[in-house]
Amino acid sequence: MYSLQDCQTIINKKLEELQLPVAPGNLYEPIRYILELEAKRIRPALVLMGCNVYSEDIQPAVFPALAIEVFHNFTLMHDDIMDQSAMRRNSPTVHAKWNPNIAILSGDAMLIKAYELLSATPAKYLRGILPVFNQTALQVCEGQQYDMDFEHSYSVSIEEYIRMVEFKTAVLVAASLKIGALVGGAGETESACLYAFGRNLGIAFQLQDDLLDVYSDPSVFGKVSGNDIVSNKKTILLVEALDRARGNKRRELYHWLGMSEFNREEKIAAIRSIYQDLELEKSANARISCYHDLALANLNTLTIAPDRKRELLAFSSYLMNRKK
Amino acid sequence: MYSLQDCQTIINKKLEELQLPVAPGNLYEPIRYILELEAKRIRPALVLMGCNVYSEDIQPAVFPALAIEVFHNFTLMHDDIMDQSAMRRNSPTVHAKWNPNIAILSGDAMLIKAYELLSATPAKYLRGILPVFNQTALQVCEGQQYDMDFEHSYSVSIEEYIRMVEFKTAVLVAASLKIGALVGGAGETESACLYAFGRNLGIAFQLQDDLLDVYSDPSVFGKVSGNDIVSNKKTILLVEALDRARGNKRRELYHWLGMSEFNREEKIAAIRSIYQDLELEKSANARISCYHDLALANLNTLTIAPDRKRELLAFSSYLMNRKK
Known about the structure:
Largest sheet of chain A: 2 strands, antiparallel
Number of strands of chain A: 2
Number of helices of chain A: 16
Oligomer: homodimer
């Protein structure tokens, strides 16, 4: 069977071989640029791994895998405009390096390119995977919209936050596995089960990301920690703090959220201390374990022979033990 | 056979029936808004008409027709951000009414929605029309990129300008007819011929649009004329003027193009006078006739019975005689 690393290597090679037109340069150069940034290629690797659970031949899964990766990078290119992010993977974002118009249009072309790659899937599978891709792509947009809506709100419930995470992050992980499974020949029940595994794992992954911003070692995590705190980004920690904090603690929280000028380290320390008093790290870790357990239960439900699940099991352990 | 008007009525009815989710409102409300603006529905009508040339049953063409219209409106939503246009069809544009981020994300969702509608095409046709749609959609992006690149250039050749018009406008008209024909059961040669008809007619249409900005009666055209002149927009007239003007006339042209503050009516009158001296209206009309004749020749080449071409012939006359 193919390991995560095998699949990542295949995807990187296929991405290098991807033919894009030269002209107009302002349309295609940013696409080459974002696809060449170092990335983990988790989602397309999961398409191949989902296929590999049911078939030794993962070749038919290559085009849908590339489609998923190009789609994911399209969302990054457009999200970075909307979030006004200047850096991505240690490099300038496309709208910062070129300009927002070029990032809008190149992103549009990437979304079309994703569908072009998807259309190259063998005909007998295409009909089954198109609706999965379409629905997922719309949900990812919905997730980004909820995320933007939440920026202006202090009253996001934990359920709303989890749904946002589900749509913005988890459904694409889930769809990657499902599309792979369908191309590998899995039936409706099996592929739905893999979808649920990916969905639960994707939620756990994002919640863990929220935690890593606050509690990771920056030299390992690769980003300066506390960025989410500084920018008042809604995370599971902040959403839960807003839900739980009472009295003075609540006033202190609102005080820091409302300040436009502040000392960065001071704000991080103050908010961290509120999180600590409310025991939010523990609570978030409990949620992560819960979604991870659900994911493992989904994997257990699969009727395929246990040894076919080996690589997905290894993947879920890798994801849960990451430090960055 | 169905006339243009019959097809427009069908499309408007189907668009009204289109189900879009309610939440998140900031994602779906702008889509409803732009689709409800009064519009001619030319492209989706052409999908139905292309189908109707070969088949009495135009039902299988309805979904691809809606896909084309939703795609077209996605391009308008994003182009309006890039061009910083505040008004479209006498109403505020989406980015002006909401904000640019919402217009980016709603546009993305529309592009996905277009593919979702396309995916609902009967299976036996989908395989044939997906590559046409994908290629066309990418070309439309390329056309928009060329158009933006041209903003900063005084040395656009007529060939480059026509290619931009071909990509930005004509290929979608062409693809509408071809997709319709394919769904109606036309073979490769026939549908390629209809594509060529649409391509040539589309170029003629856009060149005519360039003329109407300068020479139409504003009370009929619906927009104040001379907007393209005021904004230095590259049109067939300006591109040809930059190519032909010599000596004092060239200096005068550059003088007006370089001014950041000017009297609107004075600039329009001055540029119009340069166009008149260079006989550019005549030259542009000759080009329009040329593309129109090419389109009619394409229609002649179709092997289908002459009476099946009746409505397309009527459509091309309508298009060439329009005053707005």
